[in-house]
């Protein structure tokens, strides 16, 4: 839900009419349509004149009570691991396993991951279920 106009698209996709060139508005409108019809959205950012796009999707994640909760997932096909924030992990009441793994990220910054959890996820639209291991971001 857009925080600016309260319509069904991500706030990062909100564009005022006339503020961008015609092609950008067309691309943004297509992304908004995709967000509404497929529960997917595309987040765009510009860094040094290079456009980076990462998709998001609403997925169901099983909490400690066995109930599925709707959560937004960031889909990064370039990532070599799956991650969950500590806040979401705590909210879902997931059991954390202690580990010590170094993860290299942007600009070769190294972070030490201290926990991982097993998540049971389910698609919102298709008969797909999977259990995945996620590193917990603090």
Automatic annotation (TrEMBL):
Domain of life: Eukaryota
Pfam family, one: Asp_protease_2
InterPro entries found in the cross-reference section: Peptidase_aspartic_dom_sf
Stretches of the chain forming a coiled coil according to its record: none
Gene3D superfamilies named in the record: Acid Proteases (2.40.70.10)
Regions that span the bilayer: none
Name under which the protein is recorded: Peptidase aspartic putative domain-containing protein
Organism: Popillia japonica
């Amino acid at each position: 839900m857009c925080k600016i106009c309260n319509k069904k698209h991500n706030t990062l996709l909100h564009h005022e009419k006339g503020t961008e060139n015609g092609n950008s508005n067309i691309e943004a409108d297509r992304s908004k349509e995709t967000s509404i019809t497929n529960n997917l959205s595309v987040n765009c950012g510009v860094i040094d004149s290079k456009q980076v796009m990462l998709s998001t999707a609403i997925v169901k994640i099983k909490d400690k009570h066995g109930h599925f909760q709707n959560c937004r997932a960031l889909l990064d096909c370039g990532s070599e691991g799956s991650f969950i924030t500590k806040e979401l992990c705590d909210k879902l009441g997931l059991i954390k396993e202690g580990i010590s793994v170094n993860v290299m990220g942007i600009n070769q910054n190294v972070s030490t991951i201290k926990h991982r959890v097993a998540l049971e996820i389910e698609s919102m639209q298709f008969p797909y279920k999977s259990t995945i291991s996620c590193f917990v971001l603090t």
